[in-house]
Design a protein that fits this description.
This protein is of the alpha/beta class and 363 residues long. The protein has ten helices and 14 strands. Strands 1, 2, 3, 4, 5, 6, 9, 10, 11, 12, 13 and 14 form a twelve-stranded mixed beta sheet that branches. Strand 3 and strand 4 form a beta hairpin.
Length: 363
């Protein structure tokens, strides 16, 4: 965590905010770090006494830290210094479907797409002629939809994954960019990439066979980037903090998508912009069917069309959509998710740009 960004963004206690109290967090303890970076410490709320850890440079600013630690203990304490041969043996022994196997697959897919085009050892394509860099291409296409510029202020990259979108946003906007995610393994990769310029991950070849990839990346403006662990549904920021909020493949990964939209609208300044890319790939164990934006109840007026329902929400600029009003027509842009050398998922993501409409009455 960069102290300079902490002072600029002035995060608030999510526990107090749930009680409609705005209390800015303080840096209580610094146990490791430099003048430019805190790698281990504790943030605290002077009002309610809640504490939030900084682990591996990642501040964990969530309403229920205890629950997060309990649910993510394996990932928080996972070793990152295993040699390739030992890691391979652990993967074989833990077997397919284990927590170890699942997170290696998850990280492999995301990091390949985010940084594979920067890897000197990458061949450049996967099954179905998919190539890494979908996240950068979708972001570029989305930013082209915002033609009338941005208000002053920082940028929030929600669900930043392995961090490529953080770097691209910093390069294209010249602003301070904060990436947030709730995945500890991906947030670690993202922060190491955008803050320290290094990528190190296990790239899945097939089955339980993974190849270690490690390489440096040259990113300008790294001092303007950081990555925190935060929940889009409970953003720890004051209203009107950001000029731009970006969520790529985010909305259908939230337990409550409408609450997420409301939070995005709340933290955007007047006329602040939002950019969303959604494959509408809903899963019931993440979002209850009742919370889906489309994809069910085809007997209704929209015939179950997620695109039509989201378009209606944003066209109305209603409170339920965070006061966000759509900017122009949406676009459909391809996105590839590599599973292994012989398998790749292909999505067409629905990309929509919106503006926070101050007339919508958001507080």
């Amino acid at each position: 965590m960069r102290p300079r960004h902490f002072e600029t963004l002035r995060p608030i206690c999510p526990v107090c905010r749930a009680r409609e109290v705005s209390s800015h967090l303080a840096i209580n303890i610094v146990e490791a770090g430099t003048d430019d970076e805190i790698t281990a410490g504790i943030l605290g709320c002077p009002n309610c006494g809640a504490e939030y850890p900084v682990i591996d440079g990642l501040p964990v600013i969530l309403p229920d830290v205890r629950r997060y630690v309990q649910d993510n203990l394996f990932y928080l304490l996972a070793r990152r210094d295993l040699t390739p041969a030992v890691e391979s043996l652990i993967g074989d022994a833990s077997g397919p479907g284990s927590a170890f196997d699942s997170i290696r697959q998850h990280v492999s897919s995301y990091v390949w797409d985010h940084w594979g085009d920067q890897d000197p050892a990458e061949t450049g394509s996967a099954a179905g002629n998919a190539s890494p860099g979908s996240v950068a291409r979708v972001l570029a296409g989305g930013l082209d939809m915002i033609s009338d510029g941005l208000a002053s202020g920082p940028v929030l990259d929600m669900g930043c994954g392995a961090g490529r979108s953080v770097a691209e946003l910093a390069a294209r906007t010249g602003r301070t960019v904060l990436g947030i995610d709730v995945s500890t393994p991906l947030a670690r990769v993202a922060r190491r990439a955008v803050v320290h310029g290094h990528v190190d991950y296990a790239r899945r070849r097939v089955g339980l066979v993974y190849d270690r990839r490690a390489f440096g990346i040259d990113i300008a403006g790294r001092e303007r980037m950081d990555v925190w662990i935060c929940d889009v549904q409970a953003l720890p920021f004051e209203p009107a903090t950001f000029a731009l909020a970006v969520g790529l493949n985010l909305l259908d990964c939230l337990g409550d998508p409408q609450r997420g939209l409301a939070e995005i609208g709340r933290v955007l300044c007047d006329d602040g912009k939002a950019l969303l890319a959604v494959p509408f790939d809903w899963t019931g164990h993440v979002t209850a069917v009742e919370g889906w934006i489309g994809g069910h109840s085809q007997r209704g007026p929209h015939g179950g069309s997620a695109e039509a329902i989201l378009d209606g929400m944003l066209s109305e600029g209603a409170l339920s959509s965070g006061g966000l009003r759509k900017l122009g027509p949406a676009r459909e842009i391809p996105w590839h998710v590599r599973l292994h050398e012989r398998s790749c998922m292909h999505y067409d993501v629905h990309v929509v740009a919106a503006r926070r409409d101050s007339a919508a009455g958001m507080a």
